[in-house]
Amino acid sequence: MTGILRVPRSRGALSGALLVLLGIWGGLIPFVGPYFHYAYTPNSAWTYTTGRLWLTVLPAIGTLVGGLMLLASALRPVAILGAWLAVLSGAWFITGSALAALWTSGGPAQGTPAGGTLARTVEQIGFFTGLGAVVLFLAAVALGRLSVIAVKDVRVAREEPVPAVVDRDVASETAQTAQV
Predict the structure, then answer these.
(1) Which of 29, 50, 51 is nearest to 123 (CA)?
(2) Per-residue confidence at 128, pLDDT binned at 50, 70, 90?
(3) Are 23 and 67 in contact (CB under 8 A)?
(4) Is 147 exposed, middle or buried (0-12, 13-18, 19+ CB in 10 A)?
């Protein structure tokens, strides 16, 4: 039964790689976006605010770590944990800016979009809701693939040799009886 806990690394590889890229995007875009006139206030590059920490950097780290766990793990529970971490991070990207009003006063925690009407829409989608929806989708796909134990997984688990614990006394007794 322990062989079923193993999962081929290819099972979550594509989702994991895309989640890593989206995590990098989500963490860096608030800081490098002002170079391209794609920003929330304060629209100066590499400016730290607590709103950026809570609403973009932390969920980006969660997405990145979840993607890396999906990429690197050959154990089903660890890969599932990574997928759940990415699911929660995607959900936070989507809902965090709306929930930030509960702990902030005097304006939105994420700032205000710096561009015109079309740019504001694209910024909202690229920074929060669209990014979160894509992260959530990819993590849910990985979670679905990992939660199913395929027939192939069971066959591989049955064929996998169980590592034997060798006791020196038992091994020497077996060798002595084989000589007799």
Answers:
(1) 29
(2) very high
(3) yes
(4) exposed
pLDDT of residue 10: 76
Assign 6 to helix, strand or coil. Answer: strand
What are the structural domain ranges in the chain?
Answer: 2-179
Among 20, 14, 33, residue whose Cα is nearest residue 125: 33
Tokens representing residue 161 in the block:
């040799």
Q: Shortest CA distance to 143 belongs to which of 64, 75, 61, 86? A: 86
> Roughly how many angstroms between the first and final C-alpha of the chain, as a whole number?
37
Amino acid at 163: P
Q: How many helices (H) and strands (E) does the chain have?
A: 8, 0
Q: Per the structure block, which two tokens stand in for 144?
A: 């679905």
